[in-house]
Design a protein that fits this description.
This protein is mainly alpha-helical. Helices cover 65% and strands 4% of the residues. The structure holds zinc ion.
Length: 476
Amino acid sequence: MEVVAGLDLVTVVLLFFWVVYLWENYLSFRQREVYKTTKDIPWELRSVLEHETFEKARLYQLDKNGFSFWAGLYSQLEMTVILLLGGIPFLWRVSGDITGYFGYGPEFEILQSVTFVLLGTVFSTVTGLPWGLYSTFVIEDRHGFNKQTLGFYFKDLAKKFVVTQLISLPVAAGLLYIIKAGGDYFFIYAWLFTFVVTMGLIFIYADYIAPLFDRFTPLPDGDLRSQIETLAASIDFPLYKIFVVEGSKRSSHSNAYFFGFYKNKRIVLFDTLLEENPVNKEASAGEAAGEGSSEDSSDTASEPEQKGEGDAKEGGEKKKKIGCSNEEILAVLGHELGHWKLGHNLKNIIISQVNTFLCFFLFALLSNWKELYAAFGFPDSQPALIGLLIIFQFIFSPYNELLSFLMTVLSRRFEFQADTFALGLNKGADLCTALIKLNKDNLGFPVHDWLYAAWHYSHPGLLERLRALDYKQKEQ
Ligand code: ZN
């Protein structure tokens, strides 16, 4: 291992990042060709998809594809420059200068590390800002999805920044303390610590964090509510409460999710999902998070998380959109309950915990390797935080890529299984029409390059799902 000299290791890491970057650009290029050349609606969808919507979706996706090319190029160059010019040791020195100014010398490593994390987040927030603004106020806006004002955007960003720091800085400090004081078996304690923190965050997210950003109101009594309760009861889903969240204040992209531990599960529907909701202008739907992460993207596979404020634009195009019928909402929920019933979220948590443990174990093996620190510009000291950064971000990157690909493949399997579950509840036909509506309203493009989809799509494409649900046969 000593053979690896200073610059060489950085070069190897950079080479790997560039190979991944070029590979993903190649995939993007393939997908772009699909957007450019597919002018005909797939036959399965001809009776349900208007040419105008199809063309709109095509242009929207082309636009997004172009944007991600430039955003990706920028972040690739930024990372290369940071690595080549020693941006990490520079930021570490600056952090040390700041804590030193307040009378805390290099022996206060955790304090310096926390300052480093804070400065790093400030840096990435600032450099990410133009991209975020452009994406929201130019791209999304141009296609009628943006609902927020600049004021809301900045307020939201500031809130998110503060909340993230309040959580991540103490967690980072705690973790570093464990690594430094934990002795030979620190990796076990470090893993336990992250496990407890993760579970704690899932636990408090719904009640204390999510409401800081959005308003949750209980779903009023009515047909929909009793139908959902009946559905939940029929498969022993421990439903505790049903909420409606004002998604339409952020964006007209659709979403929905589940959360909660054990007997305490809540369903959250975006108001954009509901036909009757007064605020509602368009359809939407989503994805469950069972005991897992509290937020998940919509089932239509390709839309970004977007934010919006209530200066709703009354574009004629949006007025046409209508929410899903109660039957369709129930079918979407049937799919989500499938994720719960089949233990998908639990499986994901287990995989992620095993992975975290493995990473901490490998970190323990590598973290005393001085040449590693020297290679990244730390010849004289081996701060634990820098070790975490180098090993988790750079050394593990091939493993991270592989794992992320396998998780994407697994996720698609889970989606098919959840669809099959909904089919078993006799909701196949409603799920099909719901999926088509959601795809339309999110301007999802129903055609894709197979290799691009295999690499990127956590959800199978619309056509694959319709085929698996035997759409034509069920249609009439
Ligand atoms: Zn799903």
